[in-house]
Amino acid sequence: MLAIRPCWGVMIGLLLVVCSREAGAQDNDSLKPTATATITLRGIVKDSLSGQPLQGAEIKLLRDTIRFPPASVVPARTDETGVFLMSDVPLGSYILHVRRLGYERRQLPIQVSGQTPRTVTIRMAPVVRRLCELHVVPAIIVDITDSVTGALLAEQASGEVRDGDYVDSLQPKRWTKDWIMASRAAAEERPGTYEVTVMHHGYAPWSIKGVKVNRDECHVETVELKARLRRLP
């Protein structure tokens, strides 16, 4: 009579294969994507002064940390009532970017939570543009006086301003009510960094370097100097 001996090596191998397949199935289940909670973001954009709704404002939603839009969120525009809608917005922290022609841009931090729907009100300030006056503005104005007596010396004084190869002479600029010249000016509508020199017979030359003149949206921003001339012995 033949004795039947169990093949333990084969049985253990089969058990390992079965366990491995079950574990693999569990791992595959864990890798399946889970649904992300989203909401619909609703907002209205208004003029900050009049309170009127603004049509055509562009709305973008950027993540607060990584600065790019969530894949599911499409930029929106406000309708004729100033209202916009953004669907499928994942929960989290964002920066809401709003812009419209003629208004200052807005960037608003916003926390999107599980409360649905979420409504935000955005007020935009109109861009104020200054009308430029039609007159010429000098870069440098110099009041010229005696350092001791304070007497006005601009009438008989002369001088110049220099910025690299640029040179301009000081011209009469302002007078007192008695028609005595009080100051001279130079470098009309020209920004730059100047060296200014003033001369007068019987007085030591006066000069200053590194006078920085900037320009705004309309004209140069005039720098006014006071030249106190010292009489020679």
Overview of the molecule:
The protein is mainly beta and 233 residues long. The chain folds into two domains: 87 residues, Immunoglobulins (Immunoglobulin-like, Sandwich), CATH 2.60.40.10; 92 residues, Immunoglobulin-like (Sandwich). The chain is 10% helix and 44% strand. The chain is built from one helix and 15 strands; from the N terminus they run αβββββββββββββββ. The strands form four sheets. A four-stranded antiparallel sheet has the order 3-2-5-6, with no helix packed on it. The protein is rod-shaped. The chain starts with 7 loop residues before the first helix and ends with a strand. The relative contact order is 0.13.
Structural descriptors:
four-stranded antiparallel beta sheet; four-stranded mixed beta sheet; mainly beta; 10% helix; 233 residues
Instruction: Flag low-confidence runs.
Output: 6-34
CATH class of the largest domain: Mainly Beta
CATH superfamily descriptor of the largest domain: Carboxypeptidase-like, regulatory domain
Mean pLDDT: 82
Distance between the termini: 145 Å
Helix/strand-derived category reads: mainly beta
The domain tally reads 2
Rg calculated over all Cα atoms: 39 Å
CATH topology of the largest domain: Immunoglobulin-like
* Strand order in space, largest sheet: 3-2-5-6
Query: So what's the overall shape?
Result: rod-shaped
Percent helix: 10-25%
- Please provide the ordered H/E string of secondary-structure elements: HEEEEEEEEEEEEEEE
Characterize the main sheet.
Answer: 4 strands, antiparallel
Total count of strands: 15
| CATH architecture tag of the largest domain | Sandwich
Q: DSSP strand (E) fraction?
A: 35-45%
Number of helices: 1
